[in-house]
């Protein structure tokens, strides 16, 4: 295995253990509000600490961008982008859909990715140019050629703010066209499921780099395509992402662009 993936996998599994250990005692976990419908718990923080400690132990010269502790270290060309618990809202309700997401960037380009689903014990990994895997099986995006054949996932905007009207316009345009839409609540897993062919496409706006950095490489290495809503590769900066099989991606992007124009 790619050495970066070996360490990132170890870090993700340690974080997964922290998360699972706390699942039976949810009622005793203190939930803090970071913003409207944006929560953090001691579990997010502890999971992040074990990830950063593991990665920094192996690569003390690397930099970090982690959801709960922010940017640290002057990493030169290498930076780890970490979401220790993607799907915190699900976690605090005991709703079984959450993940650990770890990506490594080299000069801003995603080089390696790990997304762990601790409940299903599924670990999704990818290294640039080396393919994407779930546990030991190579992944390919689905064969869906059209939206009409597709199960598409999305994320709801956090608050009834800026993105809501645009989001509703998109739902209106897409619901009648595809098999159905899903909102499971963990963007990193949504993207991993596009890579594994269990979803045919995904779009969301208002995301942070740690929500999608690992998922993005999984999709790419599984033969999918992804972009920002304007079709550029700038999604990590703008927070809007659309992805899918090559054909579904293209059709989803067209619907998104038409809904925005109209
Ligand atoms: C959230 C999840 C969710 C997405 C939100 C994210 P968090 O991450 O990925 O699916 O819709 O925008 O903030 O806060 O649970 O790590
Ligand atoms: Ca997240
Ligand atoms: Ca998180």
Architecture blueprint of SSEs:
Blueprint lengths: L2 H20 L8 E5 L2 E4 H17 L4 E4 L3 E3 L5 E9 L1 H6 L5 E8 L2 E9 L4 E6 L4 E3 L2 E2 L12 E4 L9 H11 L5 E3 L4 H9 L5 E4 L4 H13 L3 E3 L7 H4 L2 E4 L1 H16 L1
Parallel strand pairs: 3-5, 11-12, 11-13
Antiparallel strand pairs: 1-2, 3-4, 5-6, 6-7, 7-8, 8-9, 9-10, 13-15, 14-15
Helix pairs in contact: 1-2, 4-8, 5-6
The structure holds D-MYO-inositol-1-phosphate (IPD) and calcium ion (2 copies).
Provide an overview of this structure.
With 262 residues, the chain is an alpha+beta fold. The protein contains 8 helices and 15 strands. It has an 8-stranded mixed β-sheet with strand order 4-3-5-6-7-8-9-10, sandwiched between helices. A hairpin with a 2-residue loop joins β1 and β2. The protein is globular and about 50 Å long. It starts with a helix and ends with a helix. The mean pLDDT is 95. Residues 83, 86, 187, 211 line the site of one calcium ion.
User: How is the main sheet built?
Assistant: 8 strands, mixed
Q: Please state the CA-atom Rg, rounded to the nearest Å.
A: 17 Å
Rounded mean pLDDT is 95
The number of helical segments is 8
In terms of quaternary structure, what is this?
single chain
pLDDT < 50 stretches: none
Structural class, by secondary structure, is alpha+beta
Bound molecules: D-MYO-inositol-1-phosphate, calcium ion
Categorize the overall geometry: globular
Query: What is the H/E order?
Result: HEEHEEEHEEEEEEHEHEHEHEH
Kindly report how far apart the N and C termini lie. 48 Å
